[in-house]
Design brief:
Layout: H1 3-12, E1 38-42, E2 55-61, E3 65-70, E4 73-77, E5 83-86, E6 91-97, E7 104-110, H2 111-115, H3 122-128, E8 132-135, H4 142-153, H5 157-177, E9 179-183, H6 197-212, H7 220-227, H8 231-242, H9 246-264, H10 269-275, H11 281-292, H12 296-305
Antiparallel strand pairs: 1-7, 2-5, 2-7, 3-4, 3-6, 5-8, 8-9
């Protein structure tokens, strides 16, 4: 079959799945604020320098141990247990022991998608507070992780959506059954252990306030009041840490909320806009079309018919 034939066949099928990016591509190259969803399997390696990006990151090591530095704090990661952390905290792999032919499997869950997951309670606070957690064996195993990797690699959008839903279920199970803390949450501590701890602590409190009050009017002044800072200083701090402005972050979280409500299908478009925090339908339609390339009604129709 020629390339031209393949292209023609794909154009005829309206809902052909989009190929998913290969795991050897960067999932955060387009911007640090909100990365793309992705799964990688690779040989563990030392990182030349710390980095940060807009994901909740999961690591699974098949053998040996890996030494991490999280904003300067040391963490030793063992094999055959899934760890999770907020990758917005600068992190770096600094040591590997007894790795041999072992491999590392990483999952990159966009941070805004994580913040929209309900019923996680203290788990959300722990990760957003800079903690590193290790999930219990009954939450996840290598067989499931390998299946998720194959689903992601298939390029089938529906299979990838199922993986993301199962990650949410895994987190809900962990929220109920508990987890082990490799590094306790420290961002809210009064005495932060590094220079970057204090600004991150302020930003985490602002993020939490935004997410918990997304349906309410949110101004720079009201958000800054939560942390007791001048609005200009607070918004600049937010942008420096999150790599996105407060205004754009609020809009992004409202759009994520609206998209979720649209999939439910029981609310009118006007109510979706209202319950997502938009002040008018005109504003809602403008932001939604810009973000998703279609109107809310079109997305709902595609979901129902798909």
């Amino acid at each position: 079959m020629t390339v031209e034939t393949v292209s023609l066949t794909r154009s005829v099928r309206e809902r052909a799945p989009r190929p998913t990016p290969r795991p050897d591509r960067s999932f955060y190259s387009s911007g640090k604020a909100f990365g793309r969803f992705g799964i990688r399997s690779f040989a563990p390696q030392i990182m030349p320098q710390p980095h940060s990006h807009g994901h909740i990151e999961f690591n699974w090591l098949t053998q040996g141990t890996m030494d991490y530095a999280f904003d300067g704090g040391p963490v030793a990661v063992g094999s055959n247990r899934l760890i999770a952390f907020w990758a917005g905290i600068p992190h770096q792999t600094v040591g590997l022991t007894d790795i041999a032919d072992g491999r590392q499997l990483n999952i990159y869950l966009p941070m805004d998608a994580f913040l929209e997951m309900p019923q996680l309670g203290r788990l959300t606070e722990t990760l957003m507070g800079g903690g590193v957690i290790q999930l219990n064996p009954d939450c996840i195993g290598l067989e499931t992780l390998d299946r998720w990797h194959q689903d992601y690699r298939s390029g089938n959008a529906l299979r990838t959506d199922i993986v993301r839903a199962e990650i949410g279920t895994m987190f809900r199970r962990a929220a109920i059954t508990g987890w082990d803390e490799l590094l306790p949450a420290w961002v809210e501590d009064v005495g932060s252990r590094t220079r970057t701890g204090s600004p991150v602590r302020y930003v985490v409190r602002m993020v939490r306030h935004i997410v918990e009050n997304i349906t309410e009017p949110l101004s720079a002044e009201s958000i800054a009041d939560v942390v007791g800072l001048h609005p200009n200083y607070a918004t600049n701090l937010f942008t420096k840490v999150m790599h996105i402005s407060v205004v754009k972050f609020v809009t992004r979280m409202r759009l994520i909320r609206a998209r979720s409500l649209l999939f439910d299908g029981s609310l009118s478009i006007a109510n979706v806009a209202f319950q997502s925090g938009f002040v008018s339908q005109t504003q809602f339609y403008e932001h939604f079309r810009k973000a998703y390339g279609m109107t809310p009604s079109q997305m709902r129709k595609d979901t129902i018919e798909g």
